[in-house]
Design brief:
This protein is of the alpha+beta class. It contains 2 helices and 4 strands; from the N terminus they run βββαβα. The protein has a single domain (about 5-80), classed as Aminopeptidase, CATH 3.40.630.
């Protein structure tokens, strides 16, 4: 996978979120990510996702596969997003 993308977001010089994805055919596949819980209005995970969407657009990909949810509970983070 020559174009693996790792997005890392920093806040005040410290990493607070990082996500790994790779393109395959017409899809960007989200593989793994981690975010630090932040107080206030900072959502580092959303910033990383937005950067991955922009990366996919640059490659002219048509889909972004974020994986699946393991629950139909609306409070599940990925389901909510």
């Amino acid at each position: 996978f020559p174009q693996i993308e790792i997005c890392t977001c920093e806040y005040e010089g410290e990493p607070v979120a990082s996500m790994l994805s790779f393109p395959y055919k017409d899809t960007l596949w989200y593989i793994y990510g981690a975010t630090q819980t932040m107080r206030g209005k900072i959502s580092p995970g959303y910033i990383c996702i937005w950067n991955l969407i922009q990366f996919a657009k640059k490659l002219d990909l048509k889909k972004f596969n974020m994986g699946g949810t393991y629950s139909l509970n609306m409070d599940d983070g990925l389901y909510f997003f």
